[in-house]
């Protein structure tokens, strides 16, 4: 069973967050967030002003900053996103507010196909 770190909605952090496990943020973060190789979930109550790096990022709250994902970024209908986004896959749900640039490049890791013999 994998642990998920959680920053509660009454917690405010200014500075650098690094984690080697999945992270869920419901509070306020100002600074940088690096959970490379792991998923980041931003709940509806979260307010983030940070540069973010993660394997996957799911946003339901408010995020301002530069987001880099190794896999995908999902912007839910309750989200407000202001900043630059870089990921192989980005999903924007109806109702989401997005201001910024998106770099959706084919960096997604693909599985090699087995050749028929």
- Terminal Cα separation, in Å? 39 Å
Q: Please state the CA-atom Rg, rounded to the nearest Å.
A: 15 Å
Count of domains: 1
Number of helices: 0
Describe this structure in words.
The chain is mainly beta. It has one domain. It has strands at 5-7, 12-18, 23-25, 28-42, 47-59, 62-64, 67-75, 80-82, 85-87, 89-92, 97-99, 102-104. Strands 1, 2, 3, 4, 5, 6, 7, 8, 9, 10, 11 and 12 form a 12-stranded parallel sheet that branches. It is globular.
Question: Topology, pairings included?
Answer:
Blueprint: E1 5-7, E2 12-18, E3 23-25, E4 28-42, E5 47-59, E6 62-64, E7 67-75, E8 80-82, E9 85-87, E10 89-92, E11 97-99, E12 102-104
Parallel strand pairs: 1-3, 2-4, 3-4, 4-5, 5-6, 5-7, 6-8, 7-9, 7-10, 8-11, 9-12
Summarize, please:
The protein is mainly β. Helix content is 0%, strand content 59%.
Main attributes of the structure:
twelve-stranded parallel sheet, single chain, mainly beta
């Amino acid at each position: 069973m994998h642990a998920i770190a959680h920053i509660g909605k009454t917690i405010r952090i200014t500075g650098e967050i690094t984690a080697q496990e999945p992270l869920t943020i419901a509070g306020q973060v100002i600074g940088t967030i690096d959970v490379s190789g792991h998923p980041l979930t931003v709940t509806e109550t979260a307010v983030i002003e940070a540069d973010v790096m993660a394997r996957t990022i799911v946003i339901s709250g408010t995020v301002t900053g530069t987001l880099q994902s190794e896999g995908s970024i999902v912007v839910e209908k309750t989200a407000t996103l202001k900043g630059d986004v870089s990921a192989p896959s980005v999903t924007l749900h109806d109702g989401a507010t997005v201001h910024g640039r998106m770099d959706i490049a084919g960096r997604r890791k693909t599985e090699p196909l087995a050749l028929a013999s």
